């Protein structure tokens, strides 16, 4: 009985898919017949003038309609959808249709990636992290893109030639390019936000030095700026339980990770400044200037503390933090949570430790089993043409944006929607973090004026510290790092938390000694060597 | 002896083949979920690559075991695991027996059922929710316990950031969540005791406590021993979900156990081979513990698992 059921089910399924496949291939054929005539001509054109093919349907990546499966999705932009308008339009232009392989319910992308890798049955195009591409590329899971790019992807080639930092980030030590990263635009990542209305209520100025910051925070938690008669104000808070303190640490020139100063690599926790910073911060914590629950509140900290009218100061992403003024204006009278420049550090230098990296650590690459790598790289190249880049950034012309004076401007559909503008943009598939070059003006158009002004302050004063570059390690170095780094990092966070919460008094000497015993200074050596290679590569 | 065992088995199967059919699903379950995965244990000795697969990855011998045992955290996670388990064994296990006896002694039916249901309930609530409740109760700014402390003039305590409180919090949480449900076994065992024994004890002038001591406890001793051996086998297997939900780097010192360490290094850092090695180590120690406990029990109380 049961077996017959199964056979029946299977048979129905097979016929159903057969019919479906038949339909779609028929459709595609008729479509391809229509374009076939003009196509030949264009192929000839294309060969002669690769740089001038920015018009019409010369974006064709494949002669015949081609369907490629794609493993794609990120936490921010969600799982790839087959009907995302920009990919549908791209299919019409390039003849390549993408078909997502991830179920739309996925939220843990590391896990799904690992499962797919272990199944050995790879989708044709895969989105993954740089470390994965470098590791599995060498094992044969992905194709080397160098030759493909040189021969078939003129726009991509030009972009990589012009941007050696991106090329470096997408290739291994030997210069093999394994993936096309998502390339961000804009300088700012995080900045300081303070309750401006509390400041004016208490007759204070924006803090410009560490000492002033101390005074402001003390006033915040002792003088009841929210006026409810209770001392429930929280001074500095953060929703990031890992890196939430990096802004404060930088005020004492201490850093959580690696940094480069004058071509010399340092590891923050090994420096004596780290101990000094935590000694001071532990004092602040004891005085109640830092959120008592800074390590346990988690991602909702910002929402909760701002809505409860108790949070005073944070160091967080510009765009999202800037939106609270609109959200809370009606609930809290005079609510002004505005960006300010970082207070000068103990040496009097104004600096911001975070900055938006250009090449991100993820992008897309071509699997070894891809049926048509040449068409695929041409398709990748499409997203680096002017038209492709505009679509990837702004969506569909006439729908989400219109061209005004040669610039894409978002339509009312995006700007006046009930949803956040970025969600409207993402609904078209734009900004979905695959291999394309972001254009900051997409973000600027819907960032609140106060935030734009704050960002301008940061960029005009050029407060950004250099980012630590993406380095490439040899296999042996990588193994060593895997073995040591996790333990070192665990020890650092653990000790840092204990020191800050007052569970243990700061003993920097013993801490550094233990770190060295665990091999942290060896990690610095490895990083220095990799950094020297990186410098040589960029020259 | 051995031959006759198999002969007997054959005869039994021939006679009660339908009864033995009932075993098949369980054997299948064991085979699919316990024996087939054992094939994967070999990655503990390999430099495992997801893409190459288990077969093609290279052998590295005992490297990961060496790394784990020599690592700075080995002593700590080992001691924490044993300590947290012992807390559970010393506090939670007797509590289950006491609750079972108390429930059995209740004579009014409605009351008995209510108590039983109420003590069972927390078992069915997801551990994520329970951990959320615990975190909220203990929050230093808005937690009930700290508000009470404050009203009585004490200073607020950040319980979850202080390693010294961790084991207590974890054990109390488990005590509340699992005691009722785990007592079912003992309630059933008590129900199986012959009521004539109690009558005889009453005739001899034994009060309630004497009855419990001389009739109930000896009656359920075999059950207690079996449960205890099973518990000892699980000594190294602490419920890591709850720990992950409650701990944080500041409390790793007392809270980080083998399974959470495996979780962090295996799933978060993607070192499946290393994590498997640690897990295998864990299982071997557990096996040794069970065998020893069983031997001891056989010698001391004459009741054993096998």
List keywords for this structure.
heterodimer, A: 539 residues, alpha+beta, D-Maltodextrin-Binding Protein, domain 2, five-stranded mixed sheet, four-stranded mixed sheet, 23 helices, 15 strands, B: 306 residues, mainly alpha, MetI-like fold, two-stranded antiparallel ribbon, 17 helices, 73% helix
What would the principal axes of the Cα set say about the shape of chain A?
globular
Distance between the termini of chain B: 16 Å
**Total of helices of chain A:** 23
Order of helices and strands of chain B: HHHEHEHHHHHHHHHHHHH
Organism (chain B): Paenibacillus cellulosilyticus
Family (chain B): Belongs to the binding-protein-dependent transport system permease family.
Subcellular location (chain B): Cell membrane
Domain ABC transmembrane type-1 (chain B): 78-293
Short summary:
Chain A is α+β, with helices and mostly antiparallel strands and 539 residues long.
Account of the protein in words:
The complex is a heterodimer of chains A (539) and B (306). The radius of gyration of chain A is 26 Å and the shape is globular. In chain A, strand 2 and strand 3 (78-79) form a beta hairpin. In chain A, the strands form five sheets. In chain A, strands 4-1-5-13-6 form a five-stranded mixed β-sheet. In chain A, strands 8-11-7-12 form a four-stranded mixed β-sheet. In chain A, 48% of the residues lie in helices and 13% in strands. With 539 residues, chain A is α+β, with helices and mostly antiparallel strands. Among the domains of chain A are: 66-184 and 360-437, D-Maltodextrin-Binding Protein, domain 2 (3-Layer(aba) Sandwich), CATH 3.40.190.10; 190-354 and 467-472, D-Maltodextrin-Binding Protein, domain 2 (3-Layer(aba) Sandwich). Chain A has helices at residues 2-48, 85-94, 109-119, 130-138, 146-152, 154-162, 164-169, 196-201, 210-222, 246-251, 272-286, 301-307, 318-322, 324-328, 373-382, 386-394, 412-415, 421-426, 441-444, 449-460, 475-501, 508-518, 520-538; strands at 66-71, 73-74, 78-79, 96-100, 125-129, 180-183, 190-195, 234-237, 258-261, 264-267, 311-317, 337-340, 359-366, 401-404, 407-410. The longest helix of chain A has 47 residues, at 2-48. The N and C termini of chain A lie far apart (72 Å). Chain A is built from 23 helices and 15 strands. Residues 1-56 of chain A have low confidence and may be disordered. By secondary structure, chain B is mostly helical. Chain B has one domain: MetI-like fold (Orthogonal Bundle). Chain B has a two-stranded antiparallel sheet with strand order 1-2. In chain B, helix 6 runs antiparallel to helix 13 (208-233) and helix 7 crosses helix 10. The longest helix of chain B has 32 residues, at 74-105. Chain B is flat and about 70 Å long. The mean pLDDT of chain B is 88. Chains A and B meet through helix 3 and helix 21 of A and loops of B.
